[in-house]
Amino acid sequence: MRTNSRSVSSACPRGEEWAAHALGQLSPERGRELEEHLAGCAACAAQARSWREVVAWLHGLPDQPCAPDLAGRVMAALAAGARPAPRIGWPARLRWAAIVVAALGLGLAALRLGRPRAEPRSLAAAPERGRRQAQDWLYGAQEADGGWRAGTVGMRSGYAVGVSSLALLALLEPESAPRTSRQVDSIRRGVDYLLRAQDGRGMFGPAFSGTPYNHGLATLALLQACALESNAAWRAAATRALAWTLAAQQPSGGWKPLNAAPDSASAMITLWPLLSLIRADEMGFPGLRPAVARGVAWLRRTVNADGLMDYGTAPAPPPSAAGALALLRATALPGRDGTAARSLPGSIGRQLKTQPARARAADRGKGGPDWDRIGGPVYATALAAMTVPGE
Amino acid sequence: MSSIDASAGPPEPDDLQLMRRVQGGHVADFGLLVQRHQQALLNFFLRLGAYQDADDLVQITFLRLWHYRAKYRPTAQFTTFLYTLARHAWFDALRGRRRHAAAVERLAREHDGTHDGGVGRLRLRLDVQAALRQLPVKMREALVLSVYQGLHYHEVAAVLGIPEGTVKSRVFLALRRLKEIFDADKLA
User: Fold this and answer.
1) Residue B62: which of A209, A76, A206, A87 has the closest Cα?
2) For A90, nearest residue in chain B (alpha carbons)
3) What is the DSSP secondary structure assignment for residue A389, as one 8-state letter?
4) Among residues A6, A181, A303, B20, which is most buried (max CB within 10 A)?
5) What pTM did the predictor assign?
6) Across the interface, which of A18, A54, A315 has its CB nearest the CB of B115?
7) By CA distance, what is A159's nearest residue in B?
8) What's the ipTM?
9) What is the DSSP string of A59-97?
10) What is the pLDDT of residues B65-112, one digit of tens each?
11) How far A17 CA lies from chain B's nearest CA (Å)?
């Protein structure tokens, strides 16, 4: 440790003692000794001040308040008999969502581009029968309020809107599928559930860190529903939702968790609101292209030197396929990033290889509890249904 | 007419007393512990960098506290026990995303913010949270526990499962790096 003192005596603090002193971690005896020393050593006194300044600067970081219902959710989960050992967090599941959805989108985009389909074999081989079974299971799993449960453990109930939206998206695939009146009614009840979760500003779901997931997924599901059925109330709700999405976009062009630092946008989060904007633009909602362009530009900055998608704009191995679908579906935009698109089959394939259970689940082609490996049967079944290539 | 001083109630039970009751299965006392520590725990996770999971990790930690309540020994500080559970919850969440080592590596790098042409570097110097993100995970957790959670070095050592001397070293190195950032900001 270099000090400003020209003659460092044995009483001068050693390196680690500067930190310990500034943090009040010295023993009382050593603390007294050091204070006596500082009284007679101007250089050390200046050093001590500079270390204390840093600690004061750190303490200037304000505490974030808890969500008002946080304690209530803990107690509710306890009352529901929740087991405290989820092994995979929601962001991980969302990353997988991005991967499998990107795999589906990849197939569609590859057709548009006139290139050979390049999705992993396990996904390409997943049977249409599997999707129908998964959808049947989802119809059966719908709650009386029109939504779907956010998982079996209860502690992720804040994501019920997002999971319900994902279930709806799975039921809305493909648009041209024949549906019974009961199934159409189920979809309508699902949309009504989402509308009840929308506040006056257009935001879906409870206000917490995961809101952008919920909101992006809900907006996308609502738009897909609007594409299936002309409904003025749904379209008005979608318009409000898009307004909130635009307001939540960061100056960088990406989206971030609610209440997080302004520079904490990530591809994983940005995917959903951006997809909803792209879908809305396709459907004729006006004035969205600048935001889409900024979002896509932000995603392009996540492409690393190998042409693979990263988690954010800073390097972060391994590359994630999050955002891939947004890029690939941005066909209306000029100058789409071909390098990134070409890299995706390899990226997705590599990630699937690391999680063979995921691919096996898609191969099995059946819904229900067997597909709950990544955090809840509704979530997993909806994703699995969406991995099946369109007819 | 006499007045009643609302603040003159019985003294609040301390964490140890509450944990003893919780060990006896008293859910209401568990609720008091949740209320008392939820904000500190939330900010612990936020300062570690778990921005997207912080709410969920708080819930997971408290559920583990209930589940493992019998394992708590009154000889240890309650906060040591709580933050040990919290740290395990955080690492478990990371393991779900990838292998532990890769996750730690990514956390250390994903928020680096030094690859955006200099604008980000300027901003980072002004932002404590961003400066914390620049620390390697091992340094960050030692610093957060001692600076923000108010744990003594020996308690940090117990939470992290490392010698106290290593805690001193990590906290010093972390604080020195933050001091460099802070000093550079003052000169800018």
Assistant:
1) A76
2) B53
3) P
4) A303
5) 0.45
6) A315
7) B56
8) 0.77
9) HTSPPPPPPTTHHHHHHHHHHTT--S--SS-HHHHHHHH
10) 998 888 888 877 899 999 999 998 888 776 654 444 443 444 444 434
11) 8
